[in-house]
Amino acid sequence: MTGSGRDEISRILVDLNRENVDRIALANRLFEVVYGELRRLAGGLMRSERPDHTLQPTALVNEMYLRLVGDSEIEWENRSHFFGAAAAAMRRILVEHARQHDAAKRGGGWTRVTLDDGIPGTGSPDIEVLDLDRALTRLAEMDERMERVVELRVFAGMEMKEIAHVLGVSERTVYDDWRIAKMWLARELSEGQPL
Amino acid sequence: MNPDRFARLKELLLRAADLSGKERRVFIDDACKDDPLLRREVEAVLAYEKDTHSILRDDSLLRRALHTAAKPLDLTGQEISHYQILALIGEGGMGQVYRARDTRLGRDVALKVISPTLSADAERIRRFEQEARAAGSLNHPNIVAIHDIGVHENAPFVVMELLEGESLRQRLSQGPVPIRKAIDYAVQAARGLAAAHEKGIVHRDIKPENLFVTKDGRVKILDFGVAKLTRTDIVETPDETTSADSLTGTGVIIGTSGYMSPEQAQGRPADHRSDIFALGATLYEMLTGKRTFQKGSFIETLHAIVNEDPPLMSASGREIPSGLEAIVRHCLEKSPQERFQSASDFSFALESLSGSSLRSGEMIAPAPRGRKIPHMRLLVGASLVVVVIAAAIAGVMIGSRTADRNAPDLRDFCSLTYQPLIISNARYAPDGRTVVFSAARQGSIPEIYTIAPEYPEPRPAGMTQTHLLSVSSNGELAVLTNPEWMFQRVYEGTLSVVPLGGTAPRPLIEKVRDADWSPDGSQMAIIRSVEGVDQLEFPIGSVLYKASGYLSDLRISPKGDRIACFIHPARWDDRGAVLLVDRAGKHKILTEEYAGLEGLAWSPDEKRILFSGSPTGGSYQICVADPTGGAAVALHTPESVVLYDMRPDGQWLLATYDAGYRIDVYTSRDEVDQDLSWLGQSEPACLSADGRLLLFTEETAVTGFNYAVCVRRTDGSPVVRLGEGKGQDLSPHQSQAVALIWAGPPKVVIYPLGPGESKALNTDGLTTIQHVWWSSDGAHLFALASESGHSLRIYKLGLSPDRPQAITPEGGVVLAESADGSVVVRDIAGNVVLIRPGEATPLAVMGWRATDSGTRHWSRDGESVLVWERGQLPASVEWLNLRTGKRTPFRVIGPRDLTGVMSVAKVMVSDDESAIAGWVWKRRDFLFTADCER
Questions:
Q1: Of B29, B58, B121, B205, which residue is the catalytic one?
Q2: Which residue of A152, A160, A187 is the best one to mutate when testing the B interface, meaning the one whose CB has the most B CBs within 10 A?
Q3: Nearest by Cα to A80 from A20, A22, A159
Q4: In chain A, which residues have their Cβ closer than 8 Å to the Cβ of B245?
Q5: For B179-403, CATH number?
Q6: What is the DSSP string of A63-102?
Q7: In chain B, what are the domain boundaries?
Q8: Which domain holds residue A28?
């Protein structure tokens, strides 16, 4: 992770709050930087051969936050941009890898029949991650906020209260979204695509 | 499903979920009476109400996914160069090992791919290739044969002979290795090393993982050159650049600390004897099943490697022949000079152990066996080696006995105090039974206590705010009243005398720092600072010696004709040497430079000067200097011990010296301070302009004699060591740090925080450099320094190789300095003035108190500077307007719990005032005596 990565993130986070800025471009750039840093961090931690040898996605996002943003004077609102980007970046890392890995294992990637299919929670991580990603993509078409709630919860490990902050809604709303999302996703992931 | 419909579904689900049983059914029936499809959907989703999918329930699945995502892909099935990858056969932190098919030669090989991120830099890859090739070409039965080396997508790979068997690490997972087998393995490894060393190749990372045991019992050393390629951590030699990457510390500390030699652990270059150390540690583990130096953390392990002797192998419960114990110890000597000097010496010593000697448990004079010695020349060589080893091993004992003869045999340790105190000085009273000492329970200002066998508790002598200097043979105390704390055990105050038992000291001279009575109690020698220069006077008024750093711990010899004291090159850092001055002013520096010196006394017979010194950083040990020159450590102690006095019969008055240093950083965002110290001897140097980066110096044994300059972010990120020296300042753009190296002629070194080379500035002619800081535009630096025969003043140091240029007049004591080169100085006449560069007349400064210490933080208009009162707890930091003398409170800092806190010894503030750092000192000392049998 470079010092400039940190500086750039702080700058983007501050800029995002300004008037007359290209928010989409800034958000894209934020995602890019966060994505790059997260990858490096994950790789770095793997190589350092931690005795426990397990990386928690949520812990990793938090660690990255501490490293990149830390206690600098960033408004909460702007921090939320960071976590939003981090959750999305974590999702992309896992999905991209799973796709690649899945394809490599199968020598082409056009068939995805495995023994694990259909057994919730016992499938290979690759398949599960890909399934979750697909289900979330479908969910986003119907209820974008609900998808964001799940993303922030699952990939960035955020608490309800924090998610409410990030999305600018009440905690109650987040709680309801999460409650429904859990059921809906459980069904999606267990039964495959309905309708 | 469209969003509207989904919203409807969601609403129904939410309401239905709050109902149960019949109520729920009724609600659904009612709500969906016109829409059976929606009803089916609601019921289908509700069926999963209790059934959260595991991926949402806990993150174990994502964890596994991330685990594989973070790992490089398995290359099985791919082709690298002309090698077909067949299967992954091993994996480690460094890379993966595959079985591969060499399609050109039609044979199977082992192919090791080194993780690309570990090896990015081209120069390193080149060096690695060079060494790996050199070692691979050795063609030795105990070194794995290297067939090919290449780079595949930025990842270097090595093609080796394919071995069948297991690594010694795997073997060790089944427990200790039988003694004979362990010796055999070590001998084989030592032979391999010897062959490599002969070609000048050092492995640097010998450990059980890198020793492979084939199925037929042959040991092969793996991974020559790899250590150099991959080790990018704090143990790098200081001349290697620190990449910006390591600033934030992903993988700052990589490496196999448990087998690292003390020199590697201290960042010094490794040589072939480092490999001998590592092989010794590996043999130790083979024999005991326990890691030689493994501790809970990397830092603790490093500390153990540098300072601790591993437990005897026989303590592991296994019967280890004493000869074998001695050989392993010999490998594990801290100093490379004391180890086996070659791997063949080591293997030979081991080989001569086998046979009967192992059974008898004794190492007998090894008769070289003809079978193993192929011809006459070697036989002669070998016998010589035997003699040398025998002498070397005996030397350890003879050496320590010799030391015994010189060194004290201390016994009958007797505690005098039982509560932790901050002791500033201690002396025997003339009766030899009473001890007088000055100490504080908290804060830096001591009071006088006495302690006697009849009263085992320290009794206040009725003199608060008094620092003890000396007790005469007539029972008269020399003390400093109103002492102002300077540093460590150094005070400045009014020299006063008072009879033992009295409570009203009679003042003699102001602004004295140290004094000692002559043997008859008629005269005193003193140290005081005049015009910024320390001088030694004996008798008072007759200057015998001057020093531009500082002098301390002055003691007159028992005959009264010589004076010993410490001379320190820089204020305030207690590194230095022992100085001997006679009454004519002839002087001699008796010792090498020590990283720290505290406490000195003459032996009654004047044959020795005893003192407490830290030879290489770390704890203070009792050392002996010969008045004709030379010194040695006389008593190794794990904790710091300071010698205060000696009684004529040889009893010693000592105190433990348990000093802890914290760097507390406060940010404006929250009130909670954060301890950013590193190993316990951290001294802050500077905060970056934005308050995010802290430059500091670490002064523990691990960091070595010249200390280590380090940076870390104020959010507590891992520490990055920049190189050796004492940290001074960060450049305005935070791209560089400047440090001072005091050993030898003083050097000013600039370290890049990102990639790049360090460089030394031209300091020609400067014999003393106290302090260096950057100009606000970053174009040059300022130094508080002096040339030979001159006193301190400010110099401008160019970044181009120009000679230093003096910009202020000589003399005076610098109280505060700014980035535009302005300084607040107490001039020769005692007035406090502001000297601005380019302005001929100094300006009078208003309101500067004697106890004020200046920070480097000035107001933009250059009129005010932040000051704090030295020695006050907590420290209140205030703006002082230099023109008007007006004070405005800025911030009060200090730890919440002041127990044992001595002082806030330094305060620094970031330019934007978002962060403030305080250097907090804690002490817990205990007085004791020891009888010395001679």
A1: B205
A2: A187
A3: A159
A4: 1-2
A5: 1.10.510.10
A6: HHHHHHTTTSS--HHHHHHHHHHHHHHHHHHHHHHHHHHH
A7: 3-51, 54-162, 179-403, 412-603
A8: 3-191
| Rounded Cα gap, residues A138 and B169, in angstroms | 50
Could you tell me whether strands B550-556 and B562-568 are parallel, antiparallel, or unpaired per DSSP bridges?
Answer: antiparallel
CATH topology of domain B412-603: Neuraminidase (2.120.10)
Terminal-residue alpha carbon distance, chain A: 45
Mean pLDDT, chain B, whole residue set: 81
Report the distance separating Cα B153 and Cα B119, nearest Å.
Answer: 12
* Tens digits of residue pLDDT in B196-227: 888 878 888 898 988 999 988 999 998 876 65
Measured from the Cβ of residue B43, the count of other Cβ atoms closer than 10 Å reads: 14
Right CATH number for B54-162 from 3.30.200.20, 3.40.50.2300, 1.20.58.1560, 3.40.50.720?
3.30.200.20
Taking each helix axis as running N to C, give the angle between helix B376-406 and helix B343-351, from 0 to 180 degrees, rounded to the nearest 10.
Answer: 100
Q: Which of residues 669-698 of B touch A (CB under 8 A)?
A: 669-670, 692
Residue length, chain B? 934
Distance in angstroms (rounded) separating the CA atoms of residues B545 and B579: 10
> What would the pLDDT profile of B74-110 be if each residue is shown by its tens digit?
677 888 888 998 888 876 546 678 899 988 888 889 9
Which two three-digit tokens encode residue B879? 């703006």
ipTM of the complex: 0.81
In the prediction, which pLDDT does A145 show? Answer: 93
The amino acid at B255: G
Closest CA to A126 of B9, B67, B919, B573: B67
The pTM of the whole model exceeds 0.90: no
Q: Give the whole-angstrom CA distance, residue B254 versus residue A146.
A: 42
Long-range contacts of B540-547 (CB under 8 A, 24+ apart): B540/B509, B543/B585, B544/B581, B544/B583, B544/B584, B544/B585, B544/B587, B545/B579, B545/B581, B545/B585, B545/B587
Residue ranges of A 42-61 with Cβ closer than 8 A to chain B = 42-49, 53-58, 60
